[in-house]
């Protein structure tokens, strides 16, 4: 089976790192800045970056509604950091008028860990992301990161902070075909999170193909 | 620039303990990765910072006077008033950067204690030390430094800079020096990648930079940190040209708040930076912006007053 075609939202942020991690995980990758590019992909990554900047650009280039429509239609999407904020149904500490794409039933607090001097790296346990007992822990990099304040009933928690003042805070989630992490697995050479997302996109493709076959 | 984003020698080693670690090279360089494709705007008041955030800036640079005014008014130019930096930090939710004088490590300590997100050790301010730059490894907060060529960029990275920008000639609205710096850095990297390994020793000597770092750049075809452009950018087309020349993002100094319509110009430069390779978008956003900053030709500035020559 050919690798899935996954887009990286390329309005701003660390597009190159996600592109590299997705290719290393077997996907074909294209940047997405236009409607035609969004229409072509089987999965989408919203990268790390500045969520207010992406918000402004999604507004002026009229991408919010098409993106929400594709998510409502079942498009798998993974967001890291700013991407997590954009996938949240509700945000705290947003800039004035800041909107989100939404889709994940959760409340995310922006810059929750503090300013850049508080940015940190830490090992995480995340069995559903291939970092369970007996596996190497997932080394996570948090940069002016958000955390998940609360999740709705349909949301699976994939990882929480291990130690320090924020111990127990939720930093990775999944709901159906939507995934989000507060940290940046695209920085570094451990691609387990991206592989999990590529697998999700492939599973979604098989499901859609069998549903289409059943309709015939 | 290659797809390869991870570097060999300067790749920070994995911490061994599970406890949270702050101020690592990866966290500092990673912060700059998150700014890529974005515009960082000079602001001198909280109101301007708000305008910048609303326009889609990825960060603001807090300073007392924009370079054009520093140039016009002269005198010694220093770190900003902490009250002013505080008011900007309180007003916006995007990252706040601030400038320290070259070599002034105590200004940098103060800025770190105020909680700024990035320090620009900047030639736009009057240097405090004509021999030594700040030892940036001693700080938790990351630093960006200016460079006019590859050797200068590598020396700053050796001192701990986590991000590099071209110097350009700040406060002029004349983009020609930024163009020269971007082309020079790019061409010198390209030359390194074509050298046989045994000639890299001499290259390191000529660049006045550590051999390990030179070898890493030769192998990867890029610097181990993000490279932005700065100095003289005044229009959406200026920003897009720098991106096409390989800049990963843009600093705009006097170009926005010295123009006729800052709100609209700021938003236009943000859009042009995202669609830097699409002339239709750049044409559209360039319409009706009102007057650009007046500008000075770099050639008309006497050499002792050129800011790009500060730092070494």
What does this structure look like?
The complex is a heterodimer of chains A (216) and B (312). In chain A, the strands form three sheets. In chain A, strands 2-1-3-4-12-11-10 form a seven-stranded mixed sheet. In chain A, 30% of the residues lie in helices and 27% in strands. Chain A has helices at 15-24, 35-40, 51-60, 64-72, 82-87, 192-215; strands spanning 5-9, 28-32, 43-46, 77-80, 88-92, 104-109, 120-124, 138-142, 147-151, 156-160, 170-175, 178-181. With 216 residues, chain A is of the alpha/beta class. Chain A is globular, with a radius of gyration of 16 Å. Helices cover 41% and strands 12% of the residues of chain B. In chain B, strand 2 (39-43), helix 2 and strand 3 form a beta-alpha-beta unit. Chain B is globular, with a radius of gyration of 19 Å. Chain B starts with 20 loop residues before the first strand and ends in a 26-residue tail after the last helix. Chain B contains 13 helices and nine strands. Chain B has 312 residues and is α/β, with parallel strands linked by helices. Chain B has helices at residues 25-34, 46-55, 67-73, 82-91, 105-114, 150-158, 176-194, 200-207, 211-220, 236-244, 254-257, 262-274, 279-286; strands at 21-22, 39-43, 59-62, 96-101, 118-122, 143-147, 163-166, 226-228, 250-252. An eight-stranded parallel sheet of chain B has the order 8-7-6-5-4-3-2-9. At the A-B interface, helix 1, helix 3, strand 7 and strand 8 of A face strand 1, helix 1, helix 2 and helix 12 of B. Strand 7 (120-124) of chain A pairs antiparallel with strand 1 (21-22) of chain B, so a sheet runs across the interface.
